[in-house]
Amino acid sequence: MMRLTRWLVGLCGVALIMAAAAFLPRLWPDVGMPQVADTHPDTGDAALIERGRYLARAGNCIGCHTGPGGEPYAGGRRIETPFGDLYTTNLTPDAASGLGTWTAADFWRAMHHGRSRDGRLLYPAFPYPDYTQVSRADSDAIYVFLQSLEPVAADTPPHALRFPYNTQLALRIWRGLFFEPGEFRAAPDKSDAWNRGAYLVEGLGHCGACHTARGRLGQTLASADYGGGRIPGLRWTAPALSGASPMSAARAEELKTLLATGVSRRNVTSGPMAEVVFHSLQYLREADIAAMVEYLRQLPPTSPTLDGPAGLRVPPSQAKRLLKQGRALYVDHCESCHGEDGLGEPRRYPALAGNALVTANATSNVIRSVLEGGFGPSTAGNPRPYGMPPYAHQFSAQQTAAVISYIRQAWGNEASAVSPLDINR
Amino acid sequence: MPCRLLALLCLFLASPLAAQPASPVSPPIPDMDNRMAACAGCHGEYGRSQRETYYPSIAGKPAGYLYEQLLNFRAGRRHQTQMQQMLTPLSTDYMREMAAYYAGQTAARHPSDADALDPAAAARGEQLALHGDAALDVPACRDCHGAGLRGGGPYVPGLVGLRREYIEAQLGGWQSGARSALAPDCMATIAQRLSGEDMAAVAGWIAAQPVQPKAAGETEIGPLPMNCGAVR
């Protein structure tokens, strides 16, 4: 018995040493500074500045790098993660607090290698695991645009991460496991539009940062590409972008309108997605939106969706009572906008019948929508969106669960009832 | 000759000068009542709140003041999570239109407020609102909020049309520190000089005043009697 245990321990030890030996070279590249040539792009080139402005929109840099009430791009927004809070940096060319002293090579090292100017490893809350696909030419254009901004003196508050996540060693291990600088490679058997879409979605668009499930260490799971994911720090879930069946041409047209304007005939973007449309997608050229949709509609299906845990099970007798109560509440409070048939009104009130947000396995989005109400984004294509009143201070948890259970099962929707205990979780 | 005149006339009619509308007022936004249903959920239809103690009426407040408040909420300077979430994806143009829409609504008057006021309290309230109290070093409300207490400029809100409980709650909030503004916080200073009875009297008197639209020649507010951080 003793012998066997000793033997087992020994075997484990050998396995560990072998694993470490195999792993060490992966840690190695992070020890030195990646050598990067400087391209000296012309910071006075007006056309290059405009190109950079456009690409920065496509990357939604402004959405994260603008603090509450702060100057655009001057940083200071708090990003919540399961490991603590991070604060975004000042990207304006202020010498002391921003990127004033950075070269295009320093900037490329951040975008492509995830390294700061002084070599510090950057946290992947800055979506460089996606931006690493961005070309050097596009990175230089963004650099030139950022350098053209008015410098703003704004220090970044220190990150507030828990041990051990606040150490460079933890980041080094994380990067060893999950990050490799990448390069976008066009697929020769696909159309130009598809390739352009892939470049935008996978790179600057960083759609997978929200729409792909994450593992315990915050890494996006390659096996679950675009299968949907919970957004760390927010009680929102980004739904699967990959469908079980290929997307019809009509649905693709609707999706283009939705991404460009925030509303389509039957849908509206809400919460974090409304922000993505507001700060980023509404500024993209029609051809680029079309290219992204061309890529999205051909995504391979992923299963099972990992978009978050389902709610508590509701016993059938309770479900029956909830549905009855919910129906009455719907007639009194919701029908005037969303309609008796649940079809809403085109471009004003979204349809709830056949709405994936309403019937999703993960109920967090539908619960938030009803409790908090809100507006879709104002965009050039829809400057004055309609809004929905919040019900948090009008409905009890029981009433909220009832009306949501009803809309999940009315008009041919087939989703489980929602427990009142799930409402305030 | 007449031909040339005609051509001149045509030229004039086609010029941007002729095409310009006479008044600078922008046309009303269609269907604004329905677009604003989200706000009505708390602030009432047309911005006339039914639950004034929690959600203030916004009907008839100055457009600039309302717009400033929307910016403050969106930026988190004035802290209210629900307001911030609602405003996050909205453009400043739309927010300006919302402010103008609510500024254009007539504030509701709550007649019951007038009945319940005893004459002594009404007289004290009127004195504080229109003349102030030199002994307490309290200026008249109208010195800042305008002769008709209808507010003015982008920063000073009107008071007529507010409910008695809401005014009293705000004064109490300033006195206790539960509500504050940028320093020097003049409303806090004033509230700290008032007694509970004074607050009830002035709130009651203001709430009982008829609500009328701003008079045509109503002047903007002059120099303020105190230094207020909220007024830039």
Counting DSSP H or I runs of 4 or more residues, the number of helices of chain B is 13
- The shape of chain B is globular
Low-pLDDT stretches of chain A: none
Distance between the termini of chain B: 60 Å
The proportion of strand residues of chain B reads: under 5%
Number of domains of chain B: 2
Radius of gyration of chain A: 24 Å
The H/E string of chain B reads HHHHHHHHHHHHH
End-to-end CA span of chain A? 49 Å
Strand order of the largest sheet of chain A: 1-2-3
Describe the protein's architecture and organization:
The complex is a heterodimer of chains A (425) and B (232). Chain A is mainly alpha-helical. Chain A folds into three domains: 46-178; 208-307, no CATH class; 316-422, Cytochrome c-like domain (Cytochrome Bc1 Complex, Chain D, domain 2). Chain A has 17 helices and seven strands. In chain A, the strands form three sheets. In chain A, strands 1-2-3 form a three-stranded antiparallel β-sheet, with no helix packed on it. Chain A has a two-stranded antiparallel ribbon with strand order 4-5. In chain A, helix 10 packs across helix 12. The N and C termini of chain A lie far apart (49 Å). Chain B has helices at residues 2-14, 16-19, 32-35, 37-43, 63-75, 81-87, 92-103, 112-115, 119-130, 141-145, 164-176, 186-193, 196-207. Chain B folds into two domains: 3-103, Cytochrome c-like domain (Cytochrome Bc1 Complex, Chain D, domain 2, Orthogonal Bundle), CATH 1.10.760.10; 119-207, Cytochrome c-like domain (Cytochrome Bc1 Complex, Chain D, domain 2), CATH 1.10.760.10. Chain B is an all-alpha fold. In chain B, helix 11 (164-176) runs antiparallel to helix 13 (196-207). Chain B starts with a helix and ends in a 25-residue tail after the last helix. Chain B contains 13 helices and no strands. Mean pLDDT of chain B is 80; it is low at 5-24. Chain A binds chain B through residues 68-70, 262, 274-275, 277-278, 337, 348, 372-378, 383-394, and chain B through 29, 34-42, 74-77, 82, 85-86, 88-91, 93-94, 97.
